[in-house]
Amino acid sequence: MQENYLITVPTYNEAENIDEFLKAVFAESPAEVNVLVIDDSSPDGTARLVKKLMQEYPSRLHLMERPGKQGGASAFLQAFSWGLEHGFDAMLAMDADFSHDPHHIPQFLEAGKNNDVVIGSRLIPGGRIENRSFFRDLLSKCASGYCRVLLGAKIHDWTGGYNLWSKKALETIGVESVVTRGYSFQLEMKYKALSRGCSIVELPIVFPERKHGTSKMPPSFLAKALADVWRIRFMCKSESLQQFFKFAITGGLGTITNLLIFFLCADRLGLPEIPVSIGCFIVTSVQNYVINHKWSFALSMNKTPLSVKRWLSFLCGSLLGLAVNIAVMQIIIHSFVLPYKFIAQATGIICGMILNFFVSKFVVFRKKYVK
Ligand SMILES: Nc1nc2c(ncn2[C@@H]2O[C@H](COP(=O)(O)OP(=O)(O)O)[C@@H](O)[C@H]2O)c(=O)[nH]1
Ligand SMILES: [Mg+2]
Q1: pTM (2 d.p.)
Q2: Cβ count within 10 A of residue 211
Q3: DSSP percent split of the chain into helix, strand, coil, nearest 5
């Protein structure tokens, strides 16, 4: 249950909008919601207007002033860090130009109670873009289609910026580790949240073009974002590869532990092999679970505590891996003439381990599991 919300609003030359916009935001928000404006010393005096309004909402409206124009993405990231430091449970990112309609705020807060990320979507039934030229509309639809093909079809609106991020999602993504800027930063945040197992829901929004003033995003930013899609994809894919290597090392350590205990109990103490072997399997499984939780899948586990329930599901995954291992080994032994049977066993181990890795990544250590 999330209660402590922060609405983050970056501004650069929004004097024509900011007063009316903030009043509309407060009118739509429950009393406990705070707002942080991040202004980059707008020459049109946006910050001055915000300061004036702070007298009307003394403990709820905050202003962060930065010395020069540093871009909207960097403003959002700094606002998220500020929100995490100040103990907020979730942050709703909004532009100040009324293209992010404050009427949707209650819907975002409601959806945020059960989800790590709520994406304001213009591209699902009920959502739409208003007053946008045919060309710009077509361009953003094509861009989203391209992102859906390359980053995943689960999210329809990849480029939109009206989104709610829970503390859990922001910690999973790692605000300080977001490297792209411009529109790409939306893609990177969403892709990281998605690939690290955050629960995501899309909320249909009506998106009118800005009320006053002009866009500060040149069209070249969109082109840059489309090129960045590859970089973002690769960044997260290499993460999976790293996870796989850590998972394999953990498995190797587990095997050493297994053999050591087996040697001590069966060879030195003379205990019967079958119960010793089962005991070794259970001890190794606990060791593997703890190392995978704290190391291989630390990114998606974040601060989630170790749990018996999760260990049991990990154990089931290991048994499934073992079954595949035996099946593959048997099939190979019965289908080919091999100089050594261990070749079949080695192939079986690899197949079992790959299956076990996917079960671990997408079931056992998936963040959603604890919800
Ligand atoms: N703090 C800060 N805010 C910015 C900057 N550039 C744009 N913004 C704000 O970010 C939001 C979105 O910018 P906008 O120009 O409307 O981009 P568009 O909606 O993609 O065309 C608006 O609230 C802008 O005032 C910047 O350099 N610094
Ligand atoms: Mg805008």
Answers
A1: 0.78
A2: 14
A3: 60, 10, 30
